[in-house]
Amino acid sequence: MSTKVKATKRPWDAGPVTYIALTILALISLFPFYWMIVISTRTNDAIADVPPPLLPGGRFATNVAHLFDNYEAHFAQGLINSAIVSTTVTLSVVFFSSLAGFAFAKLRFAGRNRLLLFIIGTMMVPIQLGLIPQYMLMVKLGWNNELQAVIVPFLVSGFGVFMMRQYADQAVSDELIEAARVDGCSTWRIYWNVVLPALRPAAAVLGLLTFMTTWNEFIWPFVVLNDPGNQTVQLSLRLLGTTYYNDFSLVFAGTAIATLPLLVVFVVFGRQIISGIMEGAVKA
Amino acid sequence: MTAQITRGRHDRGSPDAAPQPPAPSRHRLTKIDLKFSPYIFISPFFIIFAIFGAFPLAYTLWVSLRKWDLLGGDGGFVGLDNYSAILKDSWFWNAVYNTFGIFLLATIPQILLALVTAYWLNKKLRARTAFRMGVLVPNVTSVAAVAIVFSQLFGRDFGLINWLIGFVGIDPIDWPAGRYSAWFAVATMVDWRWTGYHALILLAAMQAIPKDLYESASIDGASALRQFWQITVPLLRPTLLFSVIIATIGGLQLFTEPLLFNGSNNAILGGSLRQSQTVAMYLYEQGFTRFNFGYGAAIAWLLFLLIIIVSLANLVLVRRLAGGSKGAEQ
């Protein structure tokens, strides 16, 4: 029996080496998160212990309370701002991307292919290179230090349009749209009542990816939000890391709080996020 | 103009906005709807991109041809003076050297490890999703959080890395202080965050390779290693290129990791000796701490040029590397 199993062993069957290697990789991936928890649940002295502490302590609540009491870090304001910015950008990107994606996939109009190609082209251009004029523009508009400076430029996404177009192309049948037209639906009604419900799985993935990217955005907020009292949580983290670098338990409590929403999202929707990334790759 | 004409027709057809317009008008409404809805649906992207994407990029070019600083304001057209000054600027070349150093040190191991990881993930596994999530989880964290945790891990006095290398007899290293040790630490952060993402992209492409290719290669007696290099890698070429270009665009614009790794110690300079300042950091330094807008804008265009050159070089390289052994599979 065992010889038979051996004889039919194919190259894609996983052996112990594969499991060990992947487990090591997963542990390396998880360790910094674990370390974040260990340090943020102990006193600051623990960082100097030899050998280093390897288990979480019981001071997380105390450290978090210190964090929020600390007026200069403006951590609570950072969290609120990040929530506002990420939610607004996510809703807008999903709405405009699905609308445009539907148009590109299912509606006929002159210049359709060229305009789509243009959008794909914009994905390759590093927009951050326009940092200086973007900043000058914000000063002109009076938006520097205001949240709209980190919201409005991100309300649409070329990646989002492309992704929704690819999905709409196969998820919505032309017959369905024709039937709705015969029933007298306007294009908007078709979008709202027929297409959008069909796009829901892809819209969810796009929303998750957009939320995470926006929550994590650093360089542009760093440039345009200079007032420490009105920043996003990533900038609060930097402020913590540079001004309280002696108090690791406090700083790590901050990173843990700022990372937690993302980890929750990832644990709940991990499967969808993974398939979103993998499907996007095959189509690109 | 077309819009006006059609609106005129509409008005004649239905003088009042009745809930149930007569049939001919409804036909015209449908025509308008069919004609203009697609453009209205796609217009938000183009409007916002024009204002906040295209305009700033073009404006960067214009600003880069002018002397423009905080004290003097817009000092007029100076042609390519900013560019020629940058090419003689040793701080700029220092930043280019650091950027390429970190980029190579990060990207080569990253792509190779991602390739191997994808190979492992492509096997028939139990707990498949758990392993995939395991390698992807670093990608969902913010750069700021990663940089803070890794700065502590690479700390001189209480860092875990120094403690670990102590066991093999290496003295504690002051990681941010030295150029190459700083490169190494920053490259580690980048790889930790991105390897899993690239592995999943490569995995997706691997799954599209028909299994019978491997079966026939096995019958011909090709070893697993040979199959990997002569079947898998060549067929992954487009995805590999995609991965490398994503890594190039991100890697050459590297900013946050080195900035935060230097903590409060001359952070934007990349340390007191500029030992880990990247081009993007130098761009920020010139634009936003010295307010040399013209000079900074010129750096931005040179950086863009570098990205294009490196992407093209990658295109050639990936073609060569993965194409050289392509004959074997046919």
UniProtKB/TrEMBL annotation, chain A:
> What keyword terms does UniProt attach to this protein?
Cell membrane, Membrane, Transmembrane, Transmembrane helix, Transport
The main location is membrane
Q: What is this protein called?
A: Sugar ABC transporter permease
Q: Which Pfam families match?
A: BPD_transp_1
Which GO biological-process labels does this protein carry? transmembrane transport
Its placement in the membrane is given as: Multi-pass membrane protein
What parts of the sequence cross the membrane?
12-35, 79-103, 115-135, 147-164, 190-212, 248-269
List the top taxonomic levels of the source.
Answer: Bacteria, Bacillati, Actinomycetota, Actinomycetes, Micromonosporales
Gene Ontology cellular component list? plasma membrane
InterPro entries tied to this protein: MetI-like, MetI-like_sf
This protein's superkingdom?
Bacteria
Where is the ABC transmembrane type-1 domain positioned along the sequence? Answer: 79-269
Q: Where in the cell is it found?
A: Cell membrane
Family stated for the protein in its record = Belongs to the binding-protein-dependent transport system permease family.
Q: Which SUPFAM superfamilies match?
A: MetI-like
Automatic annotation (TrEMBL), chain B:
Annotated keywords: Cell membrane, Membrane, Transmembrane, Transmembrane helix, Transport
- Annotated Gene Ontology cellular component terms: plasma membrane
Tell where it localizes. Answer: Cell membrane
Q: Where are the transmembrane segments?
A: 36-62, 100-121, 133-154, 235-255, 293-317
Going by the entry's taxonomy, the superkingdom of the source organism is recorded as Bacteria
Topology versus the membrane, per the UniProt entry? Multi-pass membrane protein
BP GO terms, sorted: transmembrane transport
Q: Where does the record place the region Disordered?
A: 1-26
- Which InterPro entries does the entry mention? ABC_transporter_permease, MetI-like, MetI-like_sf
The residue ranges of the ABC transmembrane type-1 domain are 96-314
CDD domains in alphabetical order: TM_PBP2
SUPFAM superfamilies per record: MetI-like
Any coiled-coil regions, as ranges: none
| Homology family | Belongs to the binding-protein-dependent transport system permease family.
Q: What is the protein named?
A: Sugar ABC transporter permease
Question: What is the scientific name of the source organism?
Answer: Virgisporangium aliadipatigenens
Q: What is the lineage of its organism?
A: Bacteria, Bacillati, Actinomycetota, Actinomycetes, Micromonosporales
Q: Which gene encodes it?
A: cebF_2
